[in-house]
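Input sequence (103 aa), recorded before submission:
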Amino acid sequence: MSVAAVSGVGVAVTGPVRSPDSTGSTVALQAQLLRQRAQLADWESCVSAKTPEGKAHIATISRELADTQSQIRKIEAVGRPPATSLAASASRAATRGTLDVWA
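Predicted structure, token format:
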């Protein structure tokens, strides 16, 4: 469950956001990815980015960002038919009703 704190006009997420349900929706993950990218950019441009604590924090955010990207790819892959079946069906459709003159 995410924990949010109101900060000025916007909302700052201070905890992890749950991944979407099994319906394959990536909207929540895309929003999480945008927040992680913003956090990473903030930390990388911060003065404390060169300290051991800053480097550790940047590494943590980078790992979380990579995990989120991986989750998005997995969800999107489930909704797509395999490339080989697409190619095979396209090949069958293209040759349907034609005569092989080289045979």
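Checked by second reader. Residues 1-20 have pLDDT under 50 and may be disordered.
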